[in-house]
Amino acid sequence: MKINIFNNLTEKEKTDAVEGLIKNSTPHQDFFMMVIFSILMATFGLLLDSPAVVIGSMLIAPILYPILSLSLGIVMSDQKLITRALFTILKSAGLGIAAAIIITLFLSDQGSELTSEIIARTYPSLLYIAVAVIAGLAVSFALIKPQLNETLPGIAVSVAIIPPLAVIGIGIAKLNWAVISGSFLLLLINILGIVFASMIIFSLMNLYVKKKVAQEVAKKEDKKLEQNNA
Fold it and tell me: What sign has the CA pseudo-torsion 111, 42, 157, 72?
């Protein structure tokens, strides 16, 4: 039986996937507000040692989109798209870490001890690389397949970008280098794993042929952003 999962996309599905990815990764104020909300929620969950709250924070975070947009930009060899995605990722990380620092300092009396949820994000291993790659494959595949989009929240939980970001902020607030370095390495592993895996999927699905579509959508979205900020 012939396997045709990568070659059965219509041109419209490819166009819709690229347009949706670019729009969802546009660095507008609402995007960054959702990132801050998710980081605040994750920080509370980590300090309270509550897995349920930490999981909830991952479900509302939009940060997966600029990471996937970075992969798309690399596959398309589009410098502007790569720069755009990197800006969104770095600004999201900066705002998120700052929010985590503020909350941790504000709750210093209640969160003086390192909880198990915090410690769990400070010991990256090879297994985390495998999880990040598999999650990256799944999320990029589901993003392009409209009928699979409902699985994205579950994949977001497995990727776990937000908790390491929050732990970095907690580590900085507590001046704990072991926490900072461990969580930063975990964050880096997750991002690189997603980027590597999604590049494979995007290449197999020939999304690079939609480079012009990506450029046009990015240009329109950035123009709207400039008008809103004027």
Answer: negative
Tell me the C-alpha to C-alpha distance, in Å, between residue 10 and each of 23, 119, 157, 187, 197.
20, 45, 29, 35, 22
Ranges 31-45, 90-104, 145-159: which has the least confidence: 145-159
CATH number of 11-222: 1.20.1080
Total residue length of the chain: 230
Count of Cβ atoms closer than 10 Å to residue 158 Cβ: 15
Distance of CA 140 to the CA centre of its chain: 12
The confidence band for 157, taking pLDDT boundaries of 50, 70 and 90, is low
Q: Cβ neighbours of residue 170 under 8 Å, at least 6 residues apart? A: 43, 46, 47, 100, 101, 104, 111, 118, 179
Please tell me whether the overall predicted TM-score, pTM, comes out greater than 0.85 for this model: yes
CA angle 134, 19, 72 (to 5 degrees): 45
- Does the pLDDT of residue 228 top 80, yes or no? no
| Residue 2 pLDDT > 50 | no
* Domain segments of the chain as ranges: 11-222
Instruction: Give the relative orientation of helices 79-106 and 29-48 as an angle to the nearest 10 degrees.
Output: 40
